[in-house]
Amino acid sequence: MEEQVRTQLRDFIVANFLFGDVSRAPDESVSLLDTGIIDSTGVLELVDLLETDLGVVVADDETIPENLDSIDNLVRFVVRKRSDSAA
C-alpha cells in the first residue's frame, strides 16, 4: 500500500507541478516548498488529491510541513491517517 501511495503522489507532483518533466522530480525527502515546486495553492491541490483520490480527511491543523512538505512526509501522513481510521 505504501508504495502505491508513493507512486500516486510522485506521479501527481510530476504531472501537475513539473508539467510531466520527470527529470526535475525531486528526491522524496526534499522539501517541495523550499525548492519552489509547490506554493500555497499547490498545497491546496495536494490536500484535494489526498481527500478525493486517497480517501484521507485533512484537518486544517494538519496542513503543516511535517505532513505535506515532501513525498516522504506525504506518504507517512497518508499511511498514518489510514491506520487511524481503520482502528
Description:
By secondary structure, the protein is mostly helical. The protein has a single domain, classed as ACP-like (Non-ribosomal Peptide Synthetase Peptidyl Carrier Protein, Chain A, Orthogonal Bundle), CATH 1.10.1200. It is 56% helix and 0% strand. It contains four helices and no strands. Helix 1 crosses helix 4. The protein is globular. It starts with a helix and ends with a helix.
What topology does this entry show?
Blueprint: H1 2-17, H2 40-52, H3 65-68, H4 71-86
Brief account:
This protein has 87 residues and is mainly α. Helix content is 56%, strand content 0%.
Number of strands: 0
Q: Give average pLDDT, whole number.
A: 94
Q: What structural class is derived from the secondary structure elements?
A: mainly alpha
Main pleated-sheet profile? none
CATH class: Mainly Alpha
Could you tell me how far the N terminus lies from the C terminus, measured between alpha carbons in angstroms?
17 Å
Order of helices and strands: HHHH
* CATH H-level superfamily: ACP-like
**Tally of domains:** 1
Portion in helices: 55-70%
Radius of gyration over alpha carbons?
12 Å
Globally, the shape reads globular
Give the count of helical stretches: 4
CATH architecture: Orthogonal Bundle
Unreliable stretches = none
